[in-house]
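JOB MANIFEST
job_type = single_chain_structure
chain_count = 1
residues = 282
[input]
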Amino acid sequence: MHHTHKAVSAAAFISALAMPIGNGAPGNGNSSSALPALPIGALSATPTVVQSGTHPTLNWNIVYPRTVGDVAVINPPGTITLTEPMYVSVRPVGVGVTGGSSTDANAEFRISVNGSGYKQLFYGTPSAIDPADTLYTKKLGKNTTIDFGGRFVENNQWTPFYTTRSSNMQVISLVDGDSIPTAYDLNQSGNMAEYLKPYVDSTGKVNIGPLSVLVMAEYAAKNNTNAAFDYQDAVFLVSLATKNNNGHGNNLDGVDSSNPGGGSGGPNGQVDPSGGVDDEAR
């Protein structure tokens, strides 16, 4: 039998054989969604058309996702120190303080930059929370320190003010994959607040974007061995980015935080765990 030698498109060959580098399709913004933890990239060939028996040069273009550890240091219990200039955004996740005679009490959340006075970002009850709100966005320089703190109103008086510098661990900063240091498993107990569920996976670990920080506060309980010490009195999401969100397109995790529409954080009505980060696919 006679075989005819034909020119073969290297691009077509690559298209047929190449598998995407990453962890599959983007999530939908639920607790199962976070930005890809594995490298993403593409395969190219030069030349794009070769004769049978010859070989093209293949090139991998691999992009490794950056994490909080690449751009900042978190000093326990939660001071964030930037190791390069970053846009810092803060959005509310939820508040729910119950202590003494107070149920759904007024609570506040504050930010301090480089040791300055704590500026109030939020004050109110759970009904005042809108996860689509951006409470703070600013480009901060290398070596900037960022702290958070808060308290609530009980019997018409402010309770003690706790911060990410407080040695009693009342306010903490967690990154993707961290466990919430409670005396019991919130998933198993069934006492996890609805607003926290999109940010925690089935094993009880924090599940957010790689450049996000979940700041959690316990205002009411004082003993960390108490079941009530669950860090759900105030929860806020801090997002770090090298560029400000441009307001267009869907993010890789399936939610466009910059164009929230009518839902609670995205056009599909889901919370965006990487809100504030311009991770749009280009």
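[summary]
Residues 7-63 form one domain.
The radius of gyration is 23 Å.
exit_status = 0
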